[in-house]
Design goal:
667 residues, alpha+beta, Lysozyme, 4-stranded antiparallel beta sheet, two-stranded antiparallel sheet, 43% helix
């Protein structure tokens, strides 16, 4: 396409964007919320197509419509850290992938794991459906080189992420989120000003203790940003009722966006896939992309991705320094180059350390500590004194220079005898002392013992493994081995609503207690703590749902007494609104097949007020709780049964499982 044709296409697309603005205003005048949401999805998608064009940000016409449409988006959904992905390969990848995902037929149809690989249990649900499969195909067929690049950066950064996530109590598999956020690039920056490996806007970064100013931007510090991301993800997890998939959507979209989707789903406790149709396009495809990336990157060799060598190790020494020392001087004293110093200190925004009276923990290459200390001791006094001169660079303004040094524009103009605020490149300005009368701090090195930060090499932590490998891994595991953190491919059985199957309750001396609900309690947690089932607590307290409040009193039989558990005579259950055959089976420790046989039910349809006969004590049942690394193959072999039986007994539609999930095993 020649330059003239390209310009015509650009103007046509720009015209379309301005048309969206007009359409949105018309929809607002009609109070047509559905139309607004539909038009916004189209507009944001088209914005993404233009953002990858060269020099687009220089066009004020695009800047205007971009600001307008993003403002409309945030008015409807609320501000977002990561909705507008970083410029460059990561944005182009997302745009192309999401376009393909939008064309997938029956996107939520759940299939088996690919390539005959066995899923193993972990904390974050990794549902396998056609969206995820399409994402995997896209990455493997059209972005193999990109995936290899990400895997190389994972060698460098994942050991650090794994350590911080473990300290913060965040599931290990969430580290793959950094791949789809930034491609593991600490300096990634979106056009909407989200920055760093975890793509924080400045307000969110500051909320988690990250400094963002003219000299330092901690959003680009891999360690500080990773710890902030861990805290943010953990808060989202509790905010969205301990659902990691919705928490991930909340990382990409604002609380208003998630709340809107939940309301439109019509469910009080929906899954991510329940709210999926009501999310913006990018958020809708965000979780499937995360799952696909996690599955591939955790076991690249299984998908034919083999790199020639590992990425560089993330290791450095720390030297505490005060004052505005030049980065070139630092590189020389550490026997390295400027690029290495910048790479180790990506949070530095300028060519020197900040003019702060506090310590800055400077990172230098391993093995350079002694050289740096020796060179610093003979550094000329002139190099240690704060510079009183500033050389104007392209883009500088007098107010910008003043804000860097804490000096007013009027003082700069007075000190330099300036008649106007106009500046020219290479102009030299005298910078007076700080506004409070103090001078800039003299450069100092705080002599301390050498501090070395060195993360171990990345360990293989596959999410999918061939059955033979899964069995060997389980057989060879020892109690003191370093745990392998793996993820599950769990499909959502809608008719069981993911309620945990109650474990058998061991007899105790006590029989009845009154439990007073504390802040943060859930019915599930109370049931777990007292070794009883959720269904029992609901029945004993005549609760019709899972909502409880602080101070509420609950009756609990600590010997695990249940109304029907110990009866041998048949009982009759009267179907209530919302009941399902599988739900009734779960509550009564029987199988759906038994309910069908006892009541001559051909399918799964039941009606309100229908009487269901239940025979107790006919099928001894054991409960298996999925542990990290379990597979259905191993569970079936352990109990001498088949995978098909386990799936039938527990209404599973695929081989996917998750840590903590409980299965009934009938003997």
């Amino acid at each position: 396409m020649d330059e003239q044709s390209s310009g015509f296409v650009y103007l046509e697309k720009l015209s379309t964007l301005y048309g969206y603005q007009s359409d949105i205003m018309s929809a607002e005048a009609r109070n047509d919320e559905e139309a607004i949401v539909f038009i916004l999805d189209l507009a944001i998608n088209d914005l993404g197509q233009l953002l990858v064009m060269d020099d687009i940000v220089q066009d004020t016409r695009f800047s205007h419509i971009y600001t307008t449409l993003v403002g409309e988006y945030e008015r409807v959904y609320g501000p977002s850290d990561t909705l507008f992905a970083a410029l460059g390969d990561i944005y182009d990848l997302r745009k192309a992938m999401f376009a393909e995902l939008e064309a997938v037929t029956d996107p939520l149809l759940e299939d088996l794991a690919p390539l005959r690989l066995q899923p193993v249990g972990t904390d974050v649900e990794m549902t396998m459906n056609r969206l995820v499969e399409s994402s995997m195909e896209f990455l493997l067929q059209k972005r193999r080189d990109t995936m290899l690049g990400w895997i190389g950066r994972a060698d460098t950064y994942f050991p650090m992420v794994e350590k911080i996530f473990a300290e913060e109590g965040v599931p290990d598999e969430l580290k793959y989120l950094a791949m789809i956020e930034s491609g593991l690039n600490p300096r990634a920056k979106s056009w909407a000003s989200a920055v760093g490996m975890w793509q924080f806007i400045s307000a969110t970064g500051r909320a988690y203790g990250l400094n963002v100013n003219a000299w330092v931007d901690d959003r680009m510090d891999p360690e500080l940003a990773t710890r902030a991301a861990a805290k943010h993800l953990k808060e989202l997890y509790y905010q969205y009722d301990k659902d990691w998939q919705i928490a991930l959507a909340g990382y990409n979209c604002s609380p208003r966006c998630i709340k809107r989707a939940i309301v439109r789903s019509g469910k009080s406790k929906p899954t991510y896939w329940d709210i999926y149709p009501y999310l913006p396009t990018e958020t809708r495809n965000y979780v499937p992309t995360f799952i696909a990336t996690s599955l591939i990157a955790s076991n690249p060799e299984a998908f034919g991705l083999t790199r020639e060598k590992e990425g560089p190790e993330y290791a450095y020494s720390i030297v505490p320094v005060t004052g505005m020392i030049d980065l070139k001087d630092i590189a020389r004293m550490a026997n390295t180059d400027l690029a290495t110093i910048k790479a180790l200190n990506p949070n530095l925004r300028r060519e020197s350390l900040p003019p702060s009276s506090g310590l800055f923990n400077l990172r230098i290459p391993l093995g350079s500590h002694d050289s740096f200390v020796a060179a610093f001791s003979v550094l000329p006094l002139a190099a240690k004194q704060p510079s009183s001169e500033y050389i104007v660079k392209r883009g500088d303004t007098l107010s910008g220079i003043g804000s860097q040094f804490g000096v007013s524009v009027s003082r700069l103009m007075e000190k330099n005898a300036l008649k106007s605020t106009n500046l020219r490149i290479s102009q030299r300005l005298v910078v007076p002392g700080l506004e409070n009368g103090q001078s800039l701090p003299t450069v100092k090195y705080e002599a301390t013992a050498e501090t070395i930060i060195q993360y171990p090499r990345r360990q293989a932590r596959p999410i999918l493994m061939p059955p033979s490998v899964a069995e060997q891994s389980s057989a060879s595991a020892k109690p003191n081995d370093t745990p392998v953190v793996q993820a599950s491919l769990r499909t959502t059985a809608a008719d069981t609503e993911n309620k945990p199957i109650p474990p058998p309750s061991p007899p105790k001396t006590e029989t009845k207690i009154t439990y007073r609900v504390k802040s943060g309690d859930t019915v599930s947690a109370i049931a777990d703590n007292h070794k009883v089932s959720v269904a029992s607590i609901l029945e004993w307290n005549n609760l019709s749902n899972f909502r409880i409040k602080s101070g509420q009193s609950l009756t609990i039989f600590t010997d695990g007494r249940e109304a029907q558990k110990n009866k041998t005579e048949p009982t009759v259950y009267r179907v209530k609104k919302g009941d399902t055959l599988s739900g009734i089976a779960v509550q009564n420790d029987v199988t759906v097949s038994q309910l069908r046989q006892w009541n001559d039910i051909k399918g799964s349809n039941i009606r309100v007020d229908q009487r269901i006969t239940i025979h107790h004590g006919q099928s001894p049942v054991q409960i298996h709780t999925v542990k990290r690394g379990d597979t259905l193959i191993e569970i079936a072999q352990k109990y001498g049964t088949s995978i098909a039986n386990i799936k039938e007994w527990n209404q599973l539609t695929s081989n996917t499982i998750r840590v903590g999930q409980q299965f009934k095993i009938f003997r």
